[in-house]
């Protein structure tokens, strides 16, 4: 199974390299990450995500009702824009806060969702690139309140709906994506309180 995952990873990333314009430096970093993954380097990272895949794969997904009940009505001082949070087909619950200032998605990474959540997080962890070739998009990894977060900052002239994005795994189970409008990654983190997600933690059995 591991060999299949590694082979798939190589194919996906090689295709991405060809389709996305990048500098020689960025291409080298992508290839370095692929080779390190396949040749068994980054042992600590590999072990961490392999354990998560094993543990989360045995857990039962939360129900739609549980997801809606756990979803916060406030993030920091930002109120939920509407009481009707949306549930997507892959058990992702979505809501907007602060009059569309912050968008939040939370995916239950248990059961059948484990591969789709943990492998992307692992690739973000392995990624050595810090910015796009034209430097209008910048990536960062930073531990915040004991949580490893993966950030993206975009310049306004990229015409993106949201200028900042944070991804992290909450309570070793819930894949959280935050997007901020008109703010950078640090300001996005400062706008929320992790304790606002504690109802998800209560349901993590």
From TrEMBL:
Q: Would you say which domain of life the source belongs to?
A: Bacteria
Please identify the protein, giving its name as recorded.
Lipoprotein
- What's the source species for this entry? Maribacter hydrothermalis
């Amino acid at each position: 199974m591991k060999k299949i995952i590694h082979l798939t990873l190589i194919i996906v990333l090689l295709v991405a390299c060809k389709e996305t314009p990048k500098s020689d430096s960025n291409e080298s970093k992508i290839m370095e990450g692929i080779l390190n993954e396949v040749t068994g380097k980054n042992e600590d990272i590999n072990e961490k995500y392999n354990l998560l895949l094993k543990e989360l794969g045995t857990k039962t997904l939360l129900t739609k009702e549980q997801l809606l009940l756990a979803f916060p009505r406030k993030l920091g001082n930002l109120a939920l824009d509407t009481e009707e949070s949306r549930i997507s087909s892959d058990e992702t619950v979505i809501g907007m806060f602060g009059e569309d200032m912050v968008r939040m998605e939370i995916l239950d990474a248990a059961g059948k969702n484990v591969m789709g959540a943990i492998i992307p997080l692992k690739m973000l962890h392995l990624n050595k690139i810090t910015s796009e070739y034209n430097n209008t998009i910048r990536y960062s990894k930073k531990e915040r309140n004991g949580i490893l977060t993966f950030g993206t900052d975009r310049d306004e002239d990229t015409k993106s709906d949201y200028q900042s994005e944070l991804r992290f795994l909450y309570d070793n189970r819930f894949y959280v994506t935050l997007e901020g409008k008109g703010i950078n990654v640090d300001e996005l983190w400062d706008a929320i309180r992790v304790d606002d997600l504690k109802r998800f933690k209560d349901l993590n059995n």
